[in-house]
Amino acid sequence: MVRYAINQFIKASQMRVITEEGSNLGVLTREEALKSAAQQGKDLVLVVPESNPPVAKILDYKKFLYTENQKHKKSVAGSRGKGGELKELRFRPGIGQGDLDNRIRRAHEWLEENNKVKFTLQFQGREFTHPEVGLDKFPGITKELADAGSPEGEVKRDGKNYSLTYLPIKVK
Fold it and tell me: Per-residue confidence at 78, pLDDT binned at 50, 70, 90?
């Protein structure tokens, strides 16, 4: 996070002052700028200390920090790289076609929102003696999601579970 000099902590003797609405008050001395900010009941915040003269804004400092923090969070979330969040959909080998279609529809929406989707096939008890009963559902899922996402590798086994992750297709 960037730290900003505010009010009496600003060291510059002269600065270009801008109001919260964006209008330019011109180059003022430190005392004139502080007086103008105090009259409006706002803070004087040094936003560009490197320029000549430095640029300060008259605004509500806490509100300014909040919006800057929100921008920072958004930029970090957007720079995660490949895809957004990882969403997981679980199902059992005996899932009905209607329920599977609902999961595929939800996965399709998530892939369009640029999220990864992980389908996990869960076996319990004796179901695991015939894994092909559940594994034959993955090719159908891949076919249904072909226009929104592509599988990341092959079906992976983890104990009594099988999973396959789909990555969103980048549209340019």
Answer: low
Question: What mean pLDDT is predicted for residues 142-158?
Answer: 91
Domain contains 81 = no
Rg of the chain over Cα atoms, rounded to whole angstroms, equals: 28
Pair 145, 107: CB distance under 8 Å: yes
- C-alpha distance from residue 75 to each of 11, 38, 72, 170 (Å): 31, 33, 5, 19
> Which residues fall within 8 angstroms of residue 70, CB to CB, at 6 or more apart?
none
pTM over 0.85: no
| Percent with pLDDT over 70 in the chain | 94
Distances (CA, A) of 148 to 6, 22, 104, 105: 49, 43, 11, 11
Each residue's pLDDT tens digit, 43-58: 999 988 888 899 999 9
Q: Provide the residue range defining the domain that includes 33.
A: 5-76
Check which CATH number belongs to the domain holding 35 and give it. 3.10.20.80
User: What proportions of the chain, in percent to the nearest 5, are helix, strand and coil?
Assistant: 35, 30, 35
Rounded CA-CA distance 20/36 in Å is: 12
